[in-house]
Amino acid sequence: MSVISVGQAVVLGAVEGVTEFLPVSSTGHLKITEGLMNIPVDDDAVVGFSAVIQVGAIAAVLVYFRKDIARIVSAWFRGLRDKEERYHHDYKFAWWVIYATIPIVAVGLAAKPLIEGPLASLWVVAGSLIAGSGVMWAADQMGRHKRGEDDTTFKDAMLVGSSQILALLFPGFSRSGATMSTALMLDLDRVAATRLSFFLGIPALTGAGIYELKDALGTGAGAAPLVVGTAVSFVVAYASIAWLLKFVAKHSFNAFVIYRIVVGVLLFGLLATGVLDS
């Protein structure tokens, strides 16, 4: 019998789709939702399920940004054959995404027992939600928002890509929150910071989903819940991406900062009163 039902998969897929690219921590929200539904958050099948349904959200990014991705990948292949093409920004950007993924992959493999053990606690999630809010608020206030996507450099990509490690080690910090905050500190505007966060997340999240697939299928997650959860995640994530890009073009990140603090405080309360088990 699957440890996660199809109905629960629908809920978790929707939560993943909404929160994966918003700077509010998809991992944190998934753990909270799993806890409220009495799903064992530290079960190998549940951990694997959470990683696999991320692929639905990543697929949404691939579809939404298909023209940009096709342009960048095409430039990369042209650059491999023609030296003159290597001066184009798209060719260099493709390599930057690859290089910027290496740090999180290395840390993810080395610290896997720690990430899936003590750091998976909901107490860590609650603290990270609040701590990450402070970082995001400071970044949004300090950033001068004067650089666009075409102004990004290798240094930007490496710093933003490496910041994903914060979310990997401290669930609740938020991968998108960490990357967007870092990009804002580097003076990128909010739209450029958001798009860079999307592109840098594609390899890391796709790799995590594929890596965890064998565990998810082999330890009781069930094929039907995986398919349903991934499909729901895709549909909801696509809508979430479209909304977020429109939102950040005209608004600051303050709404997300406030929301994260509220959720973090509420989670501390639920844990302290025993409503949720850490």
List the helices and strands and how they pair.
Layout: H1 6-19, H2 26-36, H3 44-64, H4 66-81, H5 89-110, H6 112-115, H7 122-142, H8 154-162, H9 164-169, H10 175-185, H11 190-218, H12 223-248, H13 254-272
Would you give an account of this structure?
- With 278 residues, the protein is mainly alpha-helical.
- Helices cover 75% and strands 0% of the residues.
- The longest helix has 29 residues, at 190-218.
- It is globular.
Quick gist of this model?
The chain is 75% helix and 0% strand.
Number of strands: 0
Radius of gyration: 18 Å
What spatial form do the alpha-carbon principal axes imply?
Answer: globular
Give helix % range.
over 70%
Structural class: mainly alpha
First and last CA, distance: 25 Å
Written as H for each helix and E for each strand, in order along the chain, the element string is HHHHHHHHHHHHH
Mean pLDDT: 89
The biggest beta sheet, please?
none
Uncertain segments: none
Number of helices: 13
Protein traits:
mainly alpha, 278 residues
